[in-house]
Amino acid sequence: MRRKLGALSAGVLAVALVATGCSETTDSEDGNGEAVVQTGTIATDPAESQGPAKEVPGATKGGVVKILHESEFAHLDPQKIYVSDALSFATQFARTLTGYKEDGTGKLRLVGDLATNAGEDVNSDCKTWKYTLKDGLKFDDGSPITAQDVVYGISRSFDPDWGDGPLYLQQWLADSTEYNTTYKGPFQSAGAQVPGVTVEGNTITFTFAKPRCETPYAVAMPTTAPVPAAKDTKADYDLKPVSSGPYMIQEHQYDQFINLVRNPHWDAATDPIRNAYPDGIRVEFGTNAETASNRIIANAPDDQSAIMWSNVPAANLPKTQSGEVAERVAKGPSQYVEYLYINNLRVTDLKVRQALNYAVDRDALIKQTGGIHSFGASLMSPTLSGYKDYNAYDGGQTGDVEKAKELLGGQTVKLTYAFPNTAAHQNRAALYKEMLAKAGFDIVLNPLDSATYYATVGTKTNQFDLIRGGWGADWPSAATVFPALFDGRSIRDTGNNNLAYFNAEDVNTEIDRIQTLPVAEAEGAWQALDEKIMREHAPVVPLWYIGNYEMFGSKIGGTFLSDSFGHLTLNTIFVKP
Questions:
Q1: Exposed, middle or buried by CB within 10 Å (0-12, 13-18, 19+), for 52?
Q2: Any idea what the Cα angle at residue 446 is, between residues 80 and 334, rounded to 5°?
Q3: Residue 547 is inside which H or E element, if any?
């Protein structure tokens, strides 16, 4: 948990801040760095939210940044985005009510992005929040961005068939985890009003049944990206969303490339976050982490303005640790935890789930990726205030195969394992199969297309027993971890974040109780719930704390690992002459 928020309308409030996240990109290997609780501020002084963004020393305009990426983004439709790579990319074409200023020092500031400030707590009780849009905001066709466009974007996130994105606003506005029981979005509830939302001119007011003091963080998620209703192509919006940011999609050849060019109607004077130095950004798909890192290490002319958003694989790490190449590495901890999710709808025997926790050899897994992440067995990341180091099934660094065998009673248990079909995850899957076989598990490997991976495993009727996944706090609160991953009442037919499909009444009740506590008290309560879930239910296998180890070419300047998204940032990036 973070330190207490209090009333944001009072001014500037210091808080413990972890990175904005959600599901970790399926392209990612895992990096390392000593985890620290990051700090930042929320600014409600309107001056903090005005543009233009602060100039980056030595920055020049022009050039094209190239992103070498293994597979297509899961989504580009803002209301569906909830994976770290797409979150990072979307900052350039999808603005939100609030957003994060960053400078690479670990100090973040939440400011108004589309909005004039980070939010007005109208009655100082966190139940009513008001946001007024800035003047001069335009879409890429020159039409004005209005409060109605923002609300229409939010309304789309209520659709029962839509939900791959975050659910905070929807659940808070409906005051229910079953947020779309009555209102089902603009396609299925045409003409109906979004619950709890009113618009007057260019001012949006959110009214909640309960105090929601973390609203300024929630509206920084792409849930609040504006969408013009007249240009909503529904399912096809994923291919070419309308831009509200400094860049717009010129061309998108699915799973091949995306070209971003300047949005001529973006006004830097309205944007305190993005510098938009390059003339364009090109994403090239089909380049795995090994090839991408080799290309960036070689630094050929065509790759000197390239970056990668997956971590350097173990085989290439020695090439990156000295000389000029080492200067082009960005590494450090992230807010993500790597899990082996156990599908509790299919694996119902607690002893089997406990045996899996004993059987994993974390040391071997960590060594496979070059030792660039940290041993961990808790559900919370060390970057969250209140974190406690513990291991409910402590078999040491390498596990306890004999204890796992004892729990299985000598039986052979056959389980299917779903993972993204990338080289890194193929290697890891093979290691899982080998290590778990020693304890009596027969693992059937199921590689899945990376671009549709989370949609596939997020479908309740999936046929997988074990599921690869990573999760990071969306803002500095364990309240963005436990309700999202372990509240069974939020399980739905599609778009699930609770990939363990875990539903325990005692845990659901405790989540409700903790969410009513003052933040200082809730910090310890979340930690206690962490241990309770693992010791009494073992719904997942926490494996390690994910870090970052990414690279960029010699002509790239102004970038650093984003503390809000965990990847090299595009907001301040530039191409050197």
A1: middle
A2: 50
A3: strand 540-551
- The pLDDT of residue 121 is 94
- For 225-276, the pLDDT digits (tens) are 999 999 999 999 999 999 999 999 999 999 999 999 999 999 999 999 999 9
Peptide bond between residue 264 and the one before it cis (omega within 30 degrees of 0): no
pLDDT band per the 50, 70, 90 thresholds, residue 370: confident
Q: What is the pLDDT of residue 45?
A: 85
Chain centroid, CA 164 distance in Å: 12
Q: Is the pTM of the predicted complex or chain greater than 0.85? A: yes
- Burial label, 123 (beta-carbon count in 10 A; 0-12, 13-18, 19+): exposed
Is 371:32 a contact under the CB 8 Å cutoff? yes
- The CA-to-CA distance between both ends of the chain, in Å, stands at 44
Per-residue pLDDT tens digits for 266-319: 999 999 999 999 999 999 999 999 999 999 999 999 999 999 999 999 899 999
Whether the CB-CB separation of 255 and 451 falls below 8 Å is answered with yes
Q: Quick check: helix, strand or coil at residue 431? A: helix
Scan for tokens 């059987």, then name that residue.
359
In whole angstroms, give the CA distance from residue 366 to residue 513: 36
- Give the residue among 266, 247, 288, 331 at the shortest CA–CA distance from 552: 331
CA pair distance 456, 496, nearest whole angstrom: 10
Length of the chain: 577
pLDDT band at 519 (very low <50, low <70, confident <90, very high): confident
Distance CA 485, CA 378 (A): 13
Which residues are CB-contacts of 441 (< 8 A; sequence separation ≥ 6)? 355, 356, 359, 408, 412, 413, 414, 415
Pick from 538, 545, 477: which is nearest to 511 by CA?
Answer: 477
Q: How far apart are CA 222 and CA 102, in angstroms?
A: 18
Higher pLDDT among residues 334 and 532, named by residue: 532
For position 23, what pLDDT does the model report?
Answer: 57
